Amino acid sequence: MKLYIATDHRGKDVLKDLIINLKNLGYQDIFLPTIENSEGDDYVDFALNVLEKMDKKSDIAVLICGNGIGMNIIANKVKGIRCARVVSEIEAVAAKEHNGANALALGADLGVNILTEIIDTFLKTEMPSEERHQRRVNKIIQYEEGTYNGL
User: Fold this and answer.
1) Which partner from 68, 79, 105, 127 sits 20 to 30 angstroms from 89, CA to CA?
2) pLDDT for res 104
3) How much is the pLDDT for 36?
4) Which member of 9, 65, 83, 133 is catalytic?
5) What number does CATH give the domain 3-145?
6) How many CB atoms lie under 10 A from the CB of residue 74?
7) β-bridge mates for residue 30, sequence order
């Protein structure tokens, strides 16, 4: 698993400390976009830069903007991405364990310590194992592929 992290200008202030924290927790395969942040940049570009590169089945994306909403919206437009905007560790567990999320959208306003805790919890959480959760994720995948026929 590789961890891809993208931030717009609102997230760049937490990025350096966030990476240090994650590396101290043992996460070494961290990949960042090659484009530079600047005031007036667009979160869309940063999100797409990593989402299009990652392996949707094995990698994880963390997308950070001011409040996470914009990153969440664009991420869920990318085929193969199931992104959740979360604000707590409880939501991070549910996003991955119940919904098979492979991307997190987070708000930089939460601060580096809370962001670190949420990401660490998300990365330690397993993908859905209960049949009911996997069934729902499979329906999402089928819909995305044009093969889900509904009820």
Assistant:
1) 79
2) 98
3) 66
4) 65
5) 3.40.1400.10
6) 21
7) 3
Residue 65 appears among annotated catalytic residues: yes
Q: Is the pTM of this model over 0.85?
A: yes
Query: Tokens at residue 141, please?
Result: 């995948």
- Cα separation of 113 and 138, whole Å? 34
Active-site residue, 98 included: yes
As to burial, measured by CB atoms within 10 angstroms (0-12 exposed, 13-18 middle, 19+ buried), residue 29 is exposed
Q: Contact at 8 Å (CB) between 62 and 31?
A: no
What band does 38 get if pLDDT is binned at 50, 70 and 90?
low
Name the residue with tokens 């990025």. 15
Lateral strand order in the sheet of 3-7: 30-31, 3-7, 60-65, 103-107, 83-85
Distance CA 121, CA 42 (A): 28
E runs forming strands in 34-151: 60-65, 83-85, 103-107
Does residue 13 register a pLDDT over 70? yes
Question: Token pair of 48, please?
Answer: 């797409």
Average pLDDT on 115-129 reads 96
Domain locations in the chain as residue ranges: 3-145
